[in-house]
Amino acid sequence: MISLLKQTGIGVDIADNSIEVVQLSKQGGALEILNYSRVRIASGIVENGRILDEKRLRLALESAFSKAKPQKIEGRDISVSLPESHVYTDVIALKAHTKKQREQLVRNAIERSFPLALLDLSYAYRVLYEDARGAQIFVVAASNEVIKEWGRFFRESGLRIEGFDIETLAVFRGIYGKKPGYPVCVLDLGAATSALAIFDDTGLRYSYAVREAGNAFTESIAKTFQISYEEAEQRKQEAGIANPKNEVSALILDKLEPVFAELQSGLEYVRKEYQIDVKEIALAGGSAKLKGLPKYIQKKTGLPVQLGKSAIRTQKTPLVYLGAIGLAVRALDDAWESDPLISSETEQSQEEQAPPQNMQRSEGQEDSLEGLSPLSQISKVMPFPSSSKPKPRDAARRQLFLLGVLGGGIILLSLSFWYRKEEEKGDIAQTSVIETEYGNTQVFEFQVPIAASPAKYGDKQVRGRIIETIIPEGAGEEAFISSMGKELQEQVAQGEKVWGKPLGKGNAAEKEEAKKLEWLVYREDDVARLLLDNVEQLNPRGIKFILREIEATRLQVTQEADRYLLDVSLSISLNELIEFPSPSPLPSPEPVARVVITKTPTGWLNARAGAGTNYEQIGRVYPGEKFVLLEELNGWYKIQLKEDLVGWVVVRHAAKEEK
């Protein structure tokens, strides 16, 4: 029955550089915008989703409420989301087990799938689908530190929140209002990140975040033309990407390339894996209005592209309000009640939390399901049919997503693609009986190629990229590297892994200047996919197995630019060993060119960080020593000095060796 009473909901969307607030009303089943407001916030207040200056942020939020149009916003109950870069999601599959076992099984899945330890995470889960064969459970998690930070901020600002929504889902709601009934892709080009999400009638099927977005475009323009950030922003808006021959447009397109590459990859992934053909692409976020962007994406993908046109959004409410609209929609429309929330109640200490296994279940949840396997990597979500009816929006629902903070470390295991292979065979092993059902362990040594540039991505490559960190002037290199885990992780997207050692040093004109370190980041799901594909090639008899452990052991730099080889050890459990003719199904790498150091007047030769004598000396090489040749540039050879170090030597004191 449709209520004739007027209800209101407030959505608050806070990004690094702005706050959007929307107040919706619902009467007789119809939603409409009552009031809305947008306030820009200065740099140094919020950075990468973390609060740096609570006082100034609170003033900005108060201003957004008081200066809303056409009237100020009075409510205190709000709907909010956590920053996309701090939220992790996954879907896990379970077979029959008892209620008491479920908590541990969910925690096991989180340990395998999420990049933070359980001690550092709060998580919620909800049963999406359940039948006699098993169930699928949607898990959402976020850093305790981030949840506490934002939860405390809203409470001390006099605002009440039910929990933290998921930004990707909120933008989808903001655009479509109701489920569209056909597969769609939402590309949200924000200030700090660009988020890609693909939905069909069952829900979210694929999501991925790329750390290239509006701010990066502007910073690149400012740095290239040596102009202020404000002037660079103006040039960006004026030029867009309508004319690729324009210098500013060319810079933006270069920054957009990883976004376009991920878009193409995502569309191809769901087409191959789930037979989903996306029917349209909807653009959201402040950078979505770049001149020429919809036409450019349409040309690259062959799909219709539209700026996110919400059925609720009016002429007076710009595109940037889509997230705030979607947050408010969830509070008013029961059709979206099944979208999960992360609890904001994290201020208790672990000693105060009771019982220790504090994850609450929804009313009517049955004892069932034993044995789990993550359906996907963090960013891949498998389909699930909907069979449960919406429940009343009451206090019981607020307890549905209580967090669980439990100790534990990250275990380097990935069962994602094993599930996919075994699901196709209709025979998924239960983890509780692995030890008895699979009596043998077999180890494979593989070598997988990593492409560190979108231009070289392909089906047989692991997608990767290079990120940089700066060693401040006067800082000790070893001490700096050992303490910089947090800085690295802030640049790493969901589903990515950083190779444990830097590739080498970048440019530094003088020894006393700050130095750059380059790091290789790669997609873990791509590694698992290639490994499982190769095991399947060696397994024509279809011997059943379960993947137990993947361990990256060595990284090699190849002669080809932006291409690396990762040595990986793969451990599986099975009853009958797989017989194969060679230890690795992948062909041996082609012979590489080498250089030999020739006689020098000093008896040694400097190896430098770049192709020139103005670069820092990073070591010495000696006559007769041989090295893999990586590149030749302006009279210099780039060589592999050590496993994790490259350098440059002058050509006149080195000779190429025949392959």
Could you explain how this protein is built, in words?
It is a single chain. The protein has 659 residues and is of the alpha+beta class. The longest helix has 28 residues. Helix content is 25%, strand content 31%. The protein is globular and about 90 Å long. The protein contains 15 helices and 30 strands.
List the defining traits of the structure above:
five-stranded mixed β-sheet; alpha+beta; seven-stranded mixed β-sheet; SH3 type barrels; globular
Quick structural gist:
The chain is α+β, with helices and mostly antiparallel strands and 659 residues long.
Task: Please identify the oligomeric state.
Answer: single chain
Distance between the termini: 79 Å
How many whole angstroms does the radius of gyration measure? 27 Å
Largest sheet: 7 strands, mixed
Class by alpha and beta content: alpha+beta
Number of helices: 15
Low-confidence stretches: 347-436, 505-513, 582-586
Helix proportion range:
25-40%
Shape category: globular
SS strand fraction: 25-35%
